[in-house]
Amino acid sequence: MMYNYLKFEKRDRIGILTLDRPKALNALNEEVFKELTCFLEGEDVNNIRVLIITGEGKAFIAGADIKAMQEYSPQNAYDFSETGKRVFDLIANLEIPVIAAINGFALGGGLELALACDIRVASEKARLGLPEVNLGLIPGFNGTQRLPRLVGAGNAMYLMMLGEGITAQEAYNLGVVQKLSEPDQVLEDTIKLAEKIADKSPNALRLVKEMVRNGLEMCSKDAGKMESKEFGRLFKEDQKEREEGVNAFLEKRQPNW
Fold this sequence. Notes:
10 strands; alpha/beta; four-stranded mixed β-sheet; 16% strand; 257 residues
């Protein structure tokens, strides 16, 4: 499919999805959400092991398109919020690992999209934040829910109530970002990380993601039972990847997934 605001490149087992509205700092609008939906529900994601999401130019995503939102009615705003949540849930619920390569500004909806990814790599010069309170708004794409689950309620409220951007180093210290890179190396460092992850068992990666995502919505006791159940399933006779992984370890060779 041809896109107006997205670019997709496949490098062996790694897919790189780039938001391509550099003049608007890759701001999110309804058309971008439509294209993201088409991509995330399409065939391209079925042929890769890891997906990287990044932005074109000096921004990752500078937020939602405020100008387009200026004339929204309450119903328009609600629908836009629900659309964004659905798209970001598609990202969060992909069976493959998703890594955000934050090459610049990740503000508002841009940070919310990054929070929907599994791992975040950021340029040392990136700036991140949820500044919606400065506009008399709140995060609308599940940012009020994903951020506290990642960094704790106190840190999340501090960032959202202050509404100021933080440096990449501060984001790393809080646990929002997992890895920092030189500004001109963000994508290449992210690709290297993705390649390391792609070397692991696809089934095990899927289950790790499923256990973490589902477990966050459950009490600890039930989440622990879920983990034990899935751990046990891996010892069924038809679990080829588990057999290959164990055999490769014992034979001191690389597994062939």
